[in-house]
Write the structure tokens for this entry.
Amino acid sequence: MLDTLSNFPVARDRPRAIPRGFTLPELAITLVIVGVLAAVAVPSMMTFIARKRVDSIANDVMTALRLARSLPLQINNYTSFRVEHSSNFTCYSVTAAGVSCSCTNWPKPTCSESTSEKVGHDFKTVIVQRVDGVTVGPDKAKLNYKYDNALPANGDEIVVNIESSGSGGHLRVMTNPTGLPRICSVSGHPAYPACPSASL
């Protein structure tokens, strides 16, 4: 019986294949593919970010105008929405009308001190740094809302342009004679209606 078993071949350990990494051509092809995808995606991503920055500021300007329109009846005083510029930034603010208020005083208080709580009160101030690549204009734009009916003083309207220095587009926030704001697109932004040709 032992002779019979000894005639069977014994399983021997076969040398295992050593796992190998990527070859140089495989790595080169992968890097080329990644480079092409990055070259296509990065400009699209930059445009997307610039457009979102313009969208965000336009929506915030519209919110500030709505705030300025809603406050006069609550505080029994005129309110002002204003856009101003300094050498480093553009700012817009909502303040109670009265004593001197300027968002270019930032980071100091926007309004000078006053004994009255209703006069010279700063309700909202937003700073847009020039390095952000977005311009808000025009310079010295201002709209006052009346305390007795929250309508614009003298039936005034305001137009605020928000424009990207890159490819983020150009949006406009406009008010109607009742002071209600809306956003329209100058540059064909797909999310907003086109601005009326008379306002271009």
In short: The beta strands are 79-85, 89-96, 122-129, 134-137, 141-145, 159-164, 170-175, 181-185. The longest strand covers residues 89-96. The longest helix spans residues 24-70. The mean pLDDT is 81.
